[in-house]
Amino acid sequence: MKNLLRYHIKVYFKSNKLLLPFLIYLIYLCTAYSIMPYSIVSSFSESAWVLFFVMTYVGFSYTELENPVTEQLVLLKVNNDNLYYFSRITVLLIVGVIMSVMGILYPVIFNVINHSLLFTRSLMLSDIMFGFVLHCTMGFLGVMTGSLFHPRIIKNRKIAILMVFFVAILSVAKGSLIKELPLIRLVTGIFPPVYDILVTFTNRDFFSLQTMVIPILGGIIYGTVLMLAQIYFLKKNKF
Amino acid sequence: MDDIIIALNNVSKNFGRRIILEHINLTIKKGESIALLGHNGTGKSTLLRMICSLTNITSGNIKYTARLKFNYVPEHFPKIDLTAREFIGYMGLIEGMSEKMINDRSRELFHEFFMDEMIDVPIKHLSKGTIQKVAVIQALLQTPDVLLLDEPLSGQDSQSQMAFINLSKELTNQGVTVVMSCHERYLVKQLSHSAYEIIDKNLMPVNLTGLKEIDYDIMVFDANRDKNIDSSIMAGIEQLNNFENRLELIVRRNKSDEVLKQMLKDDFKLRSMGAKEE
């Protein structure tokens, strides 16, 4: 597994595919935290859903990077399809964690530089911890959503791009749609629970374990289902 | 030779509505070397991938007597960003080889395939023939149970072809099973115990004794992009390798005179010529 990860990371970093999403997220952070003071919960929530979009792109572009020929060679050398697919997902998860660290570390450092005036109240360790978990969950949901639209699962890439865009938008915007058309709730349930997680923090000043545990757990379960579905479809739709 | 390790029973493969292979039956024995012949698009590559489970079958079944280690040489290796040294190194590590083993074995293989000077060049910047050598080297890094070769010699020069032929013979002697798809009948003659041709989606045995009687010559001409080879002599040309500044033809010996006359008549400049060694 270690060597497989080293190989995937080497291929990924040589491709420069990560540079664009990394810069986009960095630009977002610079822009978003240029206005102060800002509520901790709402700024972390906003940064988390932006990370969801960025990681959806990362997940999608990563599947495009995969070369079917080298993939076949590595699959034969590993001789374990599950391990191979899981190693690729692990690379995406590592990127998700790094981006989450960035999403939390930037405001923390910026707050220190600004003599703790970045936020409307003082930043606590619990804010950093809950914020990090929230970012990681959104990153996980993003990569699982993006990578599900793998070229071997959705062969028509134009349709895949439209679908991933549609799903990502609806994951966040489904709340507003439900307000307008309550019946749509029956359908929106299948989309990643980004809105469902974020709505629990609306108008709150503090993160709390009680309010976070169920939505975060829901997000992790949803992401895990997407991951298992992806591996199942990839094993079903071979070369 | 009697140990069957893979048995394809009534196997068919469709891509959508298109039938690629139909009711294929094939038994593969340990240490056997099998050649698959057929025109482009007849399903040779698909059959190879089905044998190692990289492609799912539509119907029928494939039985393996043990968990086998497959290595595979694809027909078209991609132009990737990694260098040959990096790619081969990672493949070795993934296969579970130690760094020392990888270094020793890869140095040996790079040398045999005349690649010493190119190991630190990104694969995407190598020529087609050299990229194909990387594909071959990754498959020969460690001894597999079954070696699957999809047009392994396409675009390679004669010396590398000889190196490959010798290594393949060595592997077969060690008990490695080789299944190879190829156009070059002279290769079948040198490497295979049995051969099959895919005709109308079915696998037909090929009489190797007929093939074994054919001898070949190699002719090397200066490359000339403005000229085409006369279609009347194409039937005698077994393989045509286009290198940067030369054109290499592997010709059936009984057609050599005819091919040479026509090539010279068409103003191709002959650089060397000789019998293709066994």
From TrEMBL, chain A:
<protein>
    <submittedName>
        <fullName>Uncharacterized protein</fullName>
    </submittedName>
</protein>
<feature type="transmembrane region" description="Helical">
    <location>
        <begin position="85"/>
        <end position="108"/>
    </location>
</feature>
<feature type="transmembrane region" description="Helical">
    <location>
        <begin position="161"/>
        <end position="178"/>
    </location>
</feature>
<feature type="transmembrane region" description="Helical">
    <location>
        <begin position="212"/>
        <end position="234"/>
    </location>
</feature>
<feature type="transmembrane region" description="Helical">
    <location>
        <begin position="128"/>
        <end position="149"/>
    </location>
</feature>
<feature type="transmembrane region" description="Helical">
    <location>
        <begin position="20"/>
        <end position="41"/>
    </location>
</feature>
<feature type="transmembrane region" description="Helical">
    <location>
        <begin position="47"/>
        <end position="65"/>
    </location>
</feature>
<keyword id="KW-1133">Transmembrane helix</keyword>
<keyword id="KW-0812">Transmembrane</keyword>
<keyword id="KW-0472">Membrane</keyword>
Automatic annotation (TrEMBL), chain B:
<dbReference type="InterPro" id="IPR003593">
    <property type="entry name" value="AAA+_ATPase"/>
</dbReference>
<dbReference type="InterPro" id="IPR051782">
    <property type="entry name" value="ABC_Transporter_VariousFunc"/>
</dbReference>
<dbReference type="Pfam" id="PF00005">
    <property type="entry name" value="ABC_tran"/>
</dbReference>
<protein>
    <submittedName>
        <fullName>ATP-binding cassette domain-containing protein</fullName>
    </submittedName>
</protein>
<dbReference type="GO" id="GO:0016887">
    <property type="term" value="F:ATP hydrolysis activity"/>
</dbReference>
<dbReference type="InterPro" id="IPR003439">
    <property type="entry name" value="ABC_transporter-like_ATP-bd"/>
</dbReference>
<dbReference type="InterPro" id="IPR027417">
    <property type="entry name" value="P-loop_NTPase"/>
</dbReference>
<keyword id="KW-0067">ATP-binding</keyword>
<dbReference type="GO" id="GO:0005524">
    <property type="term" value="F:ATP binding"/>
</dbReference>
<feature type="domain" description="ABC transporter">
    <location>
        <begin position="6"/>
        <end position="228"/>
    </location>
</feature>
<keyword id="KW-0813">Transport</keyword>
<keyword id="KW-0547">Nucleotide-binding</keyword>
